[in-house]
Amino acid sequence: MRDGRYVVVIVDDHALFSQGLALLLESRAGDTFVVAGATTAGEDAVALVGREAADIAIIDLALPPLGGVETIRRVTAAYPRTRVLALSGTEDLGLATAALRAGAAGFLGKSADPEVLVAPLLTIAAGVRVVHSDLLDALLAAGDRAGDGVLERLDERELQLWALLARGLETSEIAKPMLVSERTAKRMIASLLHKLGAANRIEAAALAGRYGLLDEQPHRGR
User: Taking 50 as the threshold, does the pLDDT of residue 216 lie above it?
Assistant: First the structure.
């Protein structure tokens, strides 16, 4: 903290949005937050967080070329005490799930009224996670549809594919470590979703967390 206020940094490729958000926080909650800096490049996020000793980092998920999810992963790995609020201009719940799994403490859509951001930031600063209601509903639905013995029905290659999918990687990014073409990767993903009984990637990611697939050793027979 700085002078009794939470230090906030903003990582967004739209400088005007960052400036507007900074002004909003200063005018609405200047006694609680101080915006110490901003960057439009995800590659600079870790250095910015470290330089300003940020308590909170607001990170846009659309950050070419690095990407918001990878930016979050790097920030939380380097500074685990920094709380991250992920923002997205889309309703891609799979992307939101990937951001949370990368270490984000919360997710909000950019379409929301900017003034709505103040309360979630206070919540995150207090150590509580903030999750979009639609995302929470999807995670709960995925948990309800999980069946026993799912890990036993999958071979090692399918488990590897599932883990990559749960990390929020794009199909092209999944194809490389699997040593297949992007077209083949798409077919493999569709087959995996069918075996899992998952309607989409977000449900598959939620199931992966339930079964501990992102741990070093999957919990077979859990």
Answer: no
